[in-house]
């Protein structure tokens, strides 16, 4: 069965990042990287990590169309599988991401795992995201009210959800409420046995959801 877990690899050190990717890469749907790993290692690490898994760059793009296009183009050049953009910057900016992404999957943030001003405009953000043609939405796995709301309005867009594990969300609840993939970082990479912990998360989904 295809994994429902996206591993959030938020570390600085190159060797640690590569070792974690080698250990869990085959067992996850994708690895999500964020600014910590990029600031220390540069964009080339996207290509290196891609040996082990699909790489989603969580750069939370929030800028004018030209700038987000330039960033997206670079991620594509280095073999990224997907990119995460904000959507509050509006339709033009999000459309520019989708256009430059080509075959890469674009996910837009419509609700955060912590309270934010996006909570006032989540519905509009989903609408803009659909109009721009994104592949998926980022919605919180630890805030059932917002996850349900996003699911109801998503019209088939994939939902990926942070907030599970270290931030208190429960993996099974998140999947039942509509997440297609859950994003888990610290609970896995800070554990003494990252692979065992990951497998524990996977079997809790398989046990509950296949009943
Ligand atoms: O809390 P964790 O260590 O499992 O990591 C969650 C990841 O997802 C981390 O990279 C964080 O920056 C990202 N994320 C959120 O946690 C919440 C959001 O609303 C969006 C992204």
Brief description of this entry?
This protein is an alpha/beta fold and 211 residues long. 45% of the residues lie in helices and 17% in strands. The protein is built from ten helices and eight strands.
Q: What would your notes on this structure say?
A:
The structure is a single chain. The protein has helices spanning 14-24, 35-41, 44-49, 65-77, 91-101, 122-132, 144-153, 171-177, 186-189, 194-209, and strands at 5-8, 30-33, 55-61, 82-86, 105-109, 136-138, 158-161, 181-184. The chain is α/β, with parallel strands linked by helices and 211 residues long. Strands 1-2-3-4-5-6-7-8 form an eight-stranded parallel β-barrel, surrounded by seven helices. Helix 7 links the parallel strand 6 and strand 7 (158-161). Helix 6 (122-132) packs parallel to helix 7. It is globular, with a radius of gyration of 16 Å. The two termini are 15 Å apart. Ligand 3DU binds at residues 8, 10, 34, 58, 112-113, 138, 140, 162-163, 165-167, 183-186. The site of ligand 3DU has 17 residues, from strand 8.
Poorly predicted regions: none
Identify the bound ligands.
Answer: ligand 3DU
Please state the average pLDDT score.
Answer: 97
Give the strand order of the largest sheet, numbering strands 1, 2, ... along the chain.
1-2-3-4-5-6-7-8
How much of the sequence lies in strands comes to 15-25%
Q: How far do the termini sit from each other?
A: 15 Å
The helix count comes to 10
- Overall helicity: 40-55%
């Amino acid at each position: 069965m295809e994994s429902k877990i996206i591993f959030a690899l938020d570390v600085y050190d190159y060797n640690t990042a590569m070792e974690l990717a080698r250990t869990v890469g085959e067992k996850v749907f994708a690895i999500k990287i964020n600014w910590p790993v990029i600031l220390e290692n540069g964009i080339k690490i996207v290509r290196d990590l891609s040996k082990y898994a699909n790489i989603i760059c969580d750069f939370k793009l929030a800028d004018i169309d030209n700038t987000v296009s330039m960033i997206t183009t670079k991620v594509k050049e280095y073999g990224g599988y997907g990119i995460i953009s904000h959507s509050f910057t509006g339709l033009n900016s999000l459309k520019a991401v989708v256009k430059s992404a080509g075959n890469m999957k674009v996910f837009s943030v419509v609700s955060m795992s912590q309270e934010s001003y996006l909570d006032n405009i989540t519905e509009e953000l989903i609408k803009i995201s659909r109009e721009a043609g994104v592949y998926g939405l980022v919605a919180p796995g630890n805030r059932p009210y917002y996850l349900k709301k996003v699911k109801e309005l998503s019209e088939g867009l994939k939902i990926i959800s942070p907030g599970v594990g270290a931030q208190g969300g429960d993996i099974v609840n998140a999947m039942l409420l509509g997440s297609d993939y859950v994003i888990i970082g610290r609970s896995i990479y800070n554990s003494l046995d990252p692979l065992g912990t990951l497998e524990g998360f996977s079997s809790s989904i398989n046990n509950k959801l296949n009943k």
